[in-house]
Amino acid sequence: MPPAEKPDPELLRFARNAIQRQRLEEWVRYGSRAAAARETGNDASVYSRIVSRVRAYAAQQGYSPDHDMVHAAPQTHYVKGTSTLYRDGEPALQWVKTDARREELDKLAREFIEAAASEIKREPPRKLKRKGQDEALCNLYICTDYHMGMLAWGEETRGEDWDVQIAEDLLVRWFERAIDLSPKAQQAVAGFLGDGIHQDGFAAVTPTSGHNLDADTRYQKIVRTWIRARRRIMRMLLDKYPQVVLIEAEGNHSPATDAVMREWWAALYENEPRVTVDTSPDPFYCVEWGQTSLFFHHGHRRKPTQVDDVFAAKFREVWGRTKHSYAHLGHLHHRDMKETNLMVVEQHRTLAAADAYASSHGWLSGREAQCITYHREYGEIGRVVITPQMLGDSA
Questions:
Q1: Phi first, then psi: what are they for 232, rounded to 5°?
Q2: Average of pLDDT values for 155-162?
Q3: What pLDDT was estimated at residue 172?
């Protein structure tokens, strides 16, 4: 067996979760990946995948004995370079340079969820409950900038209160009403256009600029609530539609969490043939429906006036095959629609209440979300608009 295959107990220090630690312990205990697989009944590829990921993370932390790197950096940092002085072929001195750039930490978060996804219990196929769908129609449910976990005090913002409980209740009730009011269709697209969660980790700050955020509760509770509400929504969609497409667009408030969610949804619905999850890491997305093409972007990378050519270039074949093209963006929380030579570009409002930062800067807008119906041949043929006020006083 090649040297790289030999168990290294030191790698246990770099396990990122309980599953990784357990598999590494089994690898060390039984002496090889093949033996560990044989003794535990797991597939050998499980050990190969986990060992490879932990080794890669260990190297980023400064531990790679095959390359004479044995000085690990703290978990909040990664090693960006080493210099080693050799005497008589042996390392005598070593200098280690570390950094804690955000993009590297985001990459590690994505690797963590990919490893954890292998342990997710898959949703079984769900029976379609409603019949008589119009096979020519596709219903697009737009939800953008929902900011689950944000805290707003109505007295301060001259608007409505907002917290985790209010957000969960409103989101589920909005989808209940929208699904009920929208026409029967062959396909539903759940278009979550980013910033569904207010913060991107345990610190309540924006991930790029570090601005402080008004957060309602703990990050793990926010994520748990978001997943619980979204699973209820997926069940409702699967009850009505033969096909469901999920778009989980990258936002500027929670790009790493959005990446985690894409992988999590894909793993959760791996055994459900009626669900398609777009797991692309590129922040531009596309759904083709007959002669209609739908494009999605949060709006933080490209403005509505600059995005149509990006979609046409990135999805050249889809755009060329279709007659009716529509782009959907969020980010700025207010409504705007423009028709260019390439497509109709629409910026959407949010259902969420304004926070203190937006209110104090005078960034105000109405609150709503929409279900837009598209025909395979004719493009958009109708839409349902529902505001929080239409759902009752508790909204």
A1: -60, -40
A2: 88
A3: 96
Q: State whether 173 and 91 are in the same domain.
A: no
Residues of the domain holding 60: 3-107
Does 321 have pLDDT greater than 90?
yes
Q: Which residue has the tokens 């168990």?
A: 7
What count of other Cβ atoms lies within 10 Å of the Cβ of residue 140?
27
- Please state, in angstroms and rounded to a whole number, the distance separating the CA atoms of residues 383 and 379: 12
197 and 284 in one domain?
yes
User: Which pair of structure tokens corresponds to residue 57?
Assistant: 């993370």
> Regarding predicted confidence, which is higher, 92 or 272?
272
CATH number of the structural domain spanning residue 237: 3.60.21.10
Do 80 and 150 belong to one domain?
A: no
Same-domain check for residues 159 and 290? yes
Q: Please enumerate, as own/partner, the contacts of 161-165 that have beta carbons within 8 Å and a separation of 24 or more.
A: 161/353, 162/216, 162/352, 162/353, 162/355, 163/216, 163/217, 164/216, 164/217, 164/221, 164/222, 164/225
Whether 112 maps to a domain, the answer reads no
Residues 59 and 130 in one domain: no
Work out the number of other CB atoms within 10 angstroms of the CB of residue 118: 13
pLDDT of amino acid 4: 45
> What are the φ and ψ backbone dihedral angles of 6, each rounded to 5 degrees?
-70, 135
Q: What is the pTM of this model?
A: 0.72
At residue 77, does pLDDT exceed 60?
no
Tell whether 117 is covered by a domain: no
- Token pair of 63 as six digits: 């531990």
355: helix, coil or strand? Answer: coil
Query: How far apart (Å, rounded) are the C-alpha atoms in residues 392 and 177?
Result: 11
Residues pairing with 285 in the sheet:
296
Q: What's the CA dihedral at 55, 59, 62, 66 to 10 degrees?
A: 80
Alpha helices in 61-163 (DSSP H): 102-117, 154-157
| d(C-alpha 30, C-alpha 39), whole Å | 8
Residue 62 CA: distances (Å) to CA of 51, 133, 302, 353: 16, 57, 37, 45
Q: Which helix (H) or strand (E) holds 12?
A: none
